Amino acid sequence: MSASRPAEGSFDAAAGRRPTLTQVAALAGVSLKTASRALNDEPNVAEATGRRVREAADRLGYRLNGIARELRRGATSALVGLISGDLTNPFYSAVASGIERELRQHGLQLVTANNDEDAELEQSLVDAFLQRRVRALLVVPSGEHHDYLAIEGNRGVPFVFLDRPPDEATADAVLIDNVGGARAAAEHLLAGGHRRIALVADLARMAPQRARIDSFVAAMKAAGNEEWEPYLRTDVHDVRRAEETVRELLELEPRPTAVFTTNNRLTTGALRALRGHTDPPALVGFDDFDLADVIGTTVVAHDSVAMGREAARLAHERISGFRGPARTVTISTTVIPRGSGERPPR
């Protein structure tokens, strides 16, 4: 049986060829200029001609690029950009969800890109979004310096920083109470009688991680506890390395009686390392995650969706004309005891 062939002038999806305005004009029997005017609802196009052009466009599956058309006319788009870390991380996907829900109420659409914790990539993504005239740009920064934003003058586009405060740039920001959350976790474990408390942290150069590390250390010093110091591990950046790190900690003598992990990925790695242990150390993780309540993992929780909503709200207010000073919104944290963080020291 022979394979069917697409009708002449139609969009061949298998071949990846999209219909062009030239094909629409040819099928409708009009000039390219007339086809363009008809599809853009411009005046001085006969009703019958316009109908014939639209029917040809429908037959071919041709669609106007509305965004490009508006940009050519000098208008801004209805798009708001988000540059974040890996969206497969539940934290970033929850933030994006909150942003999208809030923007939708104002007729705005969210487009996203990952910076992969690469400062140079982040800067190129910022430039790409600005070239496309997004209405606002939300950034979870990977780099430590943002002076290039001041040099560019933002091109009139408002910026909102999430999770990490801007450096060398004045902009709105939505941050987590990293200091309060880490202190609460440390105090929770100290109150449970733990002294040999391991700290497993992500990249220390990142502001949120630095704040969590410093706050944990301050809580240990305030309690007069020095027994935790041999168990400090930083720059543990993914699940696999977290699992390896916690396994290594458990081989020490004496081993830690408790572990505090500073984000959800590291908590996942710790849980894998503790799987099957008959006498595991206590565990508290920063960031809640799916099924943490089911498996009984104590966490420092915060509302990531609310974080996204707040960022979108600040952006929309700037788009709508607010010209006040830069604002910072802090998302609160709370320790949720579920069992893993309440194991006694042994």
TrEMBL record:
Which molecular function GO terms apply here? DNA-binding transcription factor activity; transcription cis-regulatory region binding
Report if keyword Transport is assigned: no
The UniProt entry, under Pfam families, shows: LacI (PF00356), Peripla_BP_1 (PF00532)
**Cited CDD domains:** HTH_LacI, PBP1_LacI_sugar_binding-like
The protein's UniProt keywords, in alphabetical order, are:
DNA-binding, Transcription, Transcription regulation
Q: Which residues form the HTH lacI-type domain?
A: 19-73
Name of the molecule in the record: LacI family transcriptional regulator
